[in-house]
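To whoever is on call:

I kicked off a structure prediction for a single chain this morning and the downstream step that reads the tokens threw a length-mismatch warning. I double-checked the sequence; it's 505 residues and nothing unusual in it as far as I can see. Pasting both halves so you can look.
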Amino acid sequence: MLFNSLEFIFVFLPVAVAAHFIAARRSMVAAVIVTTLTSLFFYAWWKPPFVVLPVLSILLNFLLAQQILKSDKATARLLVTAGVIANLVVLGYFKYADFILSIVEQRSPGNPNVPLALSFTTFVQIAFLVETARKPVEIKLPRYAMFVAFFPHLIAGPIVRWSELGPQIADKLRYRLDWNNIALGLTVFVLGLTKKVLLADKLAVHVAPVFDAAATGAPVTAVAAWGASLAYSLQLYFDFSGYSDMAIGLGLLFNFRLPLNFAAPFRATSIIDLWRRWHITLSRFLRDFVYVPLGGGASGPVRRSMNLLATMVLGGLWHGANWTFIAWGAFHGVLLTVNHWWRTLRGPRPVTMPRNLIGWALTFTAFVIGMTFFRAADIYSAMLMLKAMAGFGHAPDNAPLLVEYDFFAMEKGYVTEAFLRKWLGSHWSMVGTALTFGVLAIALIMPDTMEFVNYREGEPHSDWRRSQKILVWSPSIFWAIAMLALFGVVFANLGHFSEFLYYQF
């Protein structure tokens, strides 16, 4: 069941919210149990037999946590280690077994049949076990089950911590219907749905032809390669940030505040800044459970560089069992290393607009280049795209070009067909170009969803919010009508229901 499907919006969601607060009239425990069951039903809708896996995982991790709470520090440390390994083994079996076998057998990896949300729930429960050992707290099974299975974050995050959501689940005051939260939650949900349907899905039809052509070995031109990589960067951002917005909006309907996952990352002026804004909950997980345990930056710049590279390679591998994700992670590890070295060499300098513009251009361009690995079917097609982006591609002789090439300049000899076939051409269109730059302008100029509604979830982030004077949401008749009209536009475009990109990770 997808957040952008009719059965979810008009049937499941109203029933789930109503059932939660009706059960809360009886008791808080009843509401927790009911919402856990509705969340498991939401999960089972995708493939019923696989619901056994999260249920067993929740039970076993809870029992392990109870044992950790009863043990001394040394034993607790061993139990946490065993729990982390066990969770990773389950993830590895479903997600990476075929990839490892493909290396041994020297063949291309297949598409693993990974249970939905396994990557996210694994990280949630690993963080929970570590938190349990560091700061023991009393945990009841119903609350823990709801913490893991709560459907707004279950499928594709954000990766929540017990310290963020656990106390909220235990707060009796949150089990009363709050119309302000209902209004805010529906607003955020509609804005996230808008990102998905009107922006991300519209870009998808222009991205696929170029990458599909590269996957077959067909040559593409520089404009097509750059256009597709840029469009995919924006598609991925609006698809996943849209999902994250919808998750936060759904959480608010139940009076729970989920953590932010995006903080206007395409405004970042360095790759370090970008990774503090992009997929925030994954970035902090990798920082706290990979980078810091490896030593972080405490052992000097060389060790820091090695730790950054290892962390980002693992982060890339988390996204999928493919060499392309490993290459993407390594690419960003190198970028972060270079960024840290540059900051060390240049020292502190005042912030100026020219420096910010140069920093933004370099950061965004590097990110777009990296997206070729993230989207490409394999390393070969990724390299073909990069070759085209460098100006070494060309359009097939029989392929239609981006523009008609029998125009005045060509008649006068200013350009040649060979030049046009090298740079403009196939699998791309003027519509794709206009749409891509229009969506980029939205990402850079318009207030982000969380700026627009001034959402706060407790944990401070970098100074990314803009002072909004005109586009500021408030619970009012005006904004209710505006959001209803926007939902009407989105509803009119719900011709098909595409999965969110991060469902595959």
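Update from on-call: the warning came from a stale cache, not from the record. Cleared it. Sanity check on the structure: Confidence is low (pLDDT under 50) at residues 403-414.
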